[in-house]
Amino acid sequence: MSTETYTPDRLIAGSCECSTDTATLLSGQNLARGAILGKIALALGATTPGTNTGNGDVTGEAIGANTLVGNYVLTCTGAATNSGTFSVVAPDGRRLKDATVAVAYVTDEISFTIADGTEDYVAGDSFSIAVAAGSGKLVIVDSTNVDGSNVPYAILATATDATSADKVCGVYKSGEFNDNAVTVGGEDTVAQHKEALRDVGIFLKATLHA
Q: pTM for this one?
């Protein structure tokens, strides 16, 4: 026979001991206890041109769900009048699909458009798009986010109002919890985050009503 203990609000479920910690909740949120939180792990930095002949620039830079910290390096490998081809190399050395001047480049790692200038690019012209580590602050998890907070990190232990400023809050880093007592952001469902929660030691049980 198994023994389970429950908190009055029935957030905590099961006999597994919860691991707790403190973190910073990003301002602009007012969240109830039980909110599933993601951590801001990435931040888009500056785009730096090389010593280029072409005088266009890079616009519309955006990170994606699988972006890495480091520099994404774009290098012209094929010159053409009012166009050109650029290789795209990720921070870990992988070569991604090539980019074409004046055509939107979109991947789940990095997106941008290399604009054509009055002077055409030549082989060796380059740009470097920097991606830095994020603030590490927490927001309610949302699968549409692309800064790392699309992945579950913890569960909010106490209701926290960070509407006007960042707030230090208590979080659960592991344990067993009632899936009827947790919440997620956007149009997400709790079910779609269950597997990722297990990866960080958080297990949801569907046996209770909140």
A: 0.77
